[in-house]
Model the fold of this input.
Amino acid sequence: MAVLIVLTCLLGWALLSLGLARHHIALLGHEPALQRTRRLRAAGWILLALALPACLGAYGWGQGPIFWASGLVLGAILWVLLMGMLSRS
Amino acid sequence: MKESFLKSMAWLHTWSGLLVGWLLFVIFVGGTIACFDAELDDWMRPALHATAAPQTPRFDAAFALSRQQAPDAHVWWAHRGDSRDRALESYWVLDDGTEGQVALDPGTGEPVPGTAGGEFFFTLHYNLHAGLPGMYLVGLAGMLMLVALIAGVLIHKRIFKDFFTFRPRARGQRAWLDGHNVTGVLGLPFHLMIAYTGVAIFTASYMFGGINAAYDGSVERFFAEAGDFYERPETGEPLQRLHPVDPLVADAERRLGVPVDWASVHHPADSSAVIAFGTDHSRRVAWDMRQVSYDGETGAFLHQSREPGAGYTSYAYLGGMHMAQFGGPALRWLYFLMGVAGCVMIASGLQVWVRKREKRVAQAGALSGYGLVLGLNVGVVAGMPLACVAMLLANRLLPAALPDRAASEVAVFCASWILAALWGAWRTRRGRGWRELFGATALGLVAVPVVNLAATPDSALPATLARGELALAAVDLTLLAFATAFGWLALRRPGRAVQAELQARLEAP
Done:
C-alpha cells in the first residue's frame, strides 16, 4: 500500500512538472499548448489530493496524514531523480 | 532593507550549516540506520537466526542472569524477543548509573555472542555515545538545523520556479546546488518535522527552568509523575525472595489490554522491590508509556498508570512521530528513504560551500581553514559510511567467543573511521580521496553479503530468503543497493570543469 501511495504521488508530481513548459520541453521535446498545460496541472493536483483519502482509508486518521506527507516527499524526490535521467540534455 | 535581510539570512544559512554540518551528517546517518535498529540487532546475532521467539516471554530467565551479574542493581530490565528482534535482552543499571546488557536466546535462555548491534547507531544518533554532554551537542545541532532550514527557504529565490530542477550533468557547483536544493526543498516537511520533534524529545533536559523549580532538577521525577509511574522508596531491608515474574504477565496483559513488551524490577535486592510491565509503541503515533506494577515479594497488584493527560500525550505524539515505531515496516522504509535524502542534503550542502570558494580553496594550503573543511568533508562524509561497513564485517568475522565482542565491533568502527579520514584528507589534495573511499565502501558493501555467506551460511541471503526471513534478507539486499550507489560515485567520470580544477590544483605549488 505504501508503495502504491508513493507511486501515486510520483505520478501526480510528474504531471505537475509536465505542466511547466521547461520540463515539458526537456522531457517531450516540444512546448505544450496552454490547454494541455492546464489539464496536466489539474490532473497532477487531483492525484496528489486523492492520495490523502487513500492514506486515511488504509492507515486511519491517526497515521494516515503522516503516510501521505511521506508519500508526497518521496514521490517528489524520486520523480526529480527519474526526470534527471530521462531528460534529453 | 530587503537585500540586507536576505544577505544576513544567506550568511546565517551558510555558517549555521557549515558549523554543525558534519555533526548533523553523523546524526542523520545514525538516525537513518536506526530506523531499522531492531532489525539490525537481529541481523547482527546470527546465532538466533532460523529460530522463532516463543509466544510467551521468559523474563525470569533474563532476570536470573541479571541476578548473577548485578544482584543489587538499581533496576533490572528485560525485553522479550519479538518479530523484529528475537533476542531476549537482559539489561541493568546500577545505583551509580553504570549499565550492563546481555542478549539471550529467547528459547533456551542461554547468552548469545554480544554485538553492538543497531542499538549502537541509535545511541550515536541521540548522544554520540557521549552521555549528557553528547545529548546537549546533538540538541544544539538540531536547533541550528532548524535555523539553517528556515534561513535556507528564505534565501532560495527560485524555490517554486526551480521546484523540480535537477541538472546532475551541470558544471561546478551547479549540480551540487541543485542536489542540495532538491533534497532540501522537496524533503523540507520531513527535515522540519524530524529536527523539531528530535529537539522536542529532550526538551525537559534542554529547558530545565521548570524542572529545576518544581522537581529539584530531577528529569526522572518529572517523567515519573507525568506518566504516572509507580515508585516507592527503598526500605533498607533485604528482599526475602523475588516473586516469579512470568506468571504475572497474563494479568498485566489483561489490565493493559495489549501484549506486554518488557518487564522491570526496581531495587531487586530490597524488600521494596517493584515488578513492572509495559508495552511497545507500535499501535499508534504517540508513545504508549502505560505501566502496571506488582509487589516484588508477593506479586500483588499495586498500581496501573492512568491514561496520560493532554500535555503529556502531545509530547508523546511528537516523540512517537520522530521515533517511527508505529506504522510497521512500511513507515520505517519511508523514514529511512527520507533520512537518506537528508544525508544527501547535508553532504551536498557541504560540497556547495567548497565549490563556491573553488579558487580560494585551491590556492589555500593544507593547513588552512579551507584545508580543514576539505579534510572534514571527506573524512566525515566519505569516512563514516566506510566505518559502518567495517563494523558489519567485523560482526561476522570476529570470533564468537571473544570477550566483550560488542566493544571490539565499536573499536573496528572507530579505527576504520580514523584511518579512512586520514587517508581521505591526505589523498583529497590530489583529488583522489573521495573516489578511493567511496570505492572501498562499495567493495565493503559487496563483501558483507559474501562474508555473511562464508562465515554464517544460515544467515546469508540464500538461507534467509528460503526461510522467508525477509527483514534479514533486506539488510543484505539494501547493502548491495548501496554498493551500486557508492560504486557509481567512485567510478563516475568527472565533468570537464572538475578535471580542469584538478589540473589547476596539481599544477599549483
